[in-house]
Design brief:
The protein is mostly helical. The protein has one domain. The protein is built from three helices and no strands. The protein is elongated.
């Protein structure tokens, strides 16, 4: 929380808003990672489950970063 305060002091509200939007988007791949891990643990060993969930997380995170880099100015301006 202090990081947001200092970011606000140094870079302004727009940067804090952009950072919070990215943080909310970043939670989506992690939530799906947990769902995949929970589901695969019912049928597979822990190593296979972690590998599968990590692969899903990597794909989703990479896609979201690419989308963010192409559209972040549009998203922030609309907020």
């Amino acid at each position: 929380m202090l990081a947001y305060y200092f970011m606000y002091l140094e870079q302004g509200a727009a940067k804090v808003r952009a950072t919070t939007c990215f943080a909310m988007l970043a939670s989506i791949p992690f939530a799906i990672f947990l769902l995949v891990l929970n589901y695969t643990l019912k049928k597979n060993h822990i190593f296979i489950s972690i590998f599968a969930a990590s692969a899903v997380w990597l794909i989703l995170s990479s896609a979201l970063v690419l989308i963010w880099n192409k559209t972040n100015h549009i998203i922030i301006q609309k907020i």
